[in-house]
Amino acid sequence: xxxLSSLKRGLxxxxxxxxxxxxxxxxxxxxxxxxxxxxxxxxxxLEEVLLRDAFxxxxxxxxxxxxxxxxxxxxxxxxxRGQFADVVNGAMxxxxxxxxxxxxxxxxxxxxTQRRSGIGIRITLESxxxxxxxxxxxxxxxxxxxxxxxxIIECDGKPTRVVADLQxxxxxxxxxxxxxxxxxxxxxxxxRDYKTVIPESVTWQGKTAVVRVPTFDMGYSRENVENIMxxxxxxxxxxxxxxxxxxxxxxxxxxxLASFFLDSRAEPxxxxxxxxxVLAYEQKHGPTTDLQAIADASPLKTRASxxxxxxxxxxxxxxxxxxGSGSASEILAAALGEIKxxxxxxxxxxxxxxxxVVVPLAGDEGFWIQYPLTxxxxxxxxxxxxxxxxxxxxxxxxxxxxxxxxxTAIKLLQKPITPAKRAG
Length: 424
Known about the structure:
alpha+beta, Pdz3 Domain, 2-enoyl-CoA Hydratase, Chain A, domain 1, eight-stranded antiparallel beta sheet, six-stranded mixed beta sheet, 13 helices, 29% helix
């Protein structure tokens, strides 16, 4: 789907919800024609939402009408709902931050059903091909035997370098070629519907529990996480929390997972800074662009939920991150790094950390709009939006035969870890 082609857009659903980076296909609803009147009505509704509700400290959304005017010719050329959304999102990229996206109708359908059509993988782009990061259960990718770490180099005889190289219509067959270690494998896949949920899991490396959490969105299962954490608490000596490719999700789910690592009473994670916090500060101190001053003045700190206090893990923890770790994942990784001195292993995260909402856009076209409501500072004052979380220990991306980040994390956990000075 073109609207999810860029990484920033793909991670835009951040704290509110989740966007799946993968090989999918445009749905028929996105291909439906739009009249000039329908475009005008959609743009008017969009403008009303942005001017009335969207908020990022120091940003004026009053620029939006002029940004639309600059693309008048592009809007006129857009014939379908999907093409219209592409033009809108091209304009929105001028704002230069995440969590501001117009989704075509198929997004709403996928969100309700938690199903989409395609091959069924999460990916990262590399110079030599498309690396498989996750494989959705019961998907065409599963049928073909694809596994995390495989590098897809061809689809139907053509090199694969971008998401569009793997896209196709439902029912369409393709021959993909991928590299696994020193072996080159060719498989046929038939695109079909699959469920967009990958469950949380735990695997074991001796006494080290490797806990994989793929999302904080609708697919996040509190019951499953609690069962996993009970097993981890009983059996492990150390924990690796794998947040690679996790683009974020809902804040309550983030707080739920955090509750197994952080004391909600004594260890705040950071501060969301929205319109209320800015106004409260400026009423007392006058206008400012100093986010740290606003955060320091705000009594509302983001904390882990309290349910985990009965199962607060004492084991040392390391966190795996990469460029696909966004939003809620970045918040948790930064918190564990700052508060627990947890090693952060991998590559820099996405830097897409504005809390937002996703709602249907008024009108009959079926669009959904995501817009930001707050910024975020960690408890030590780092702004993650646009900056991301830097790993304390860099490691190459996982391949099929070698998971360097995981191996590095396990080695680090074998060394004594000095607790960080508590903040807050």
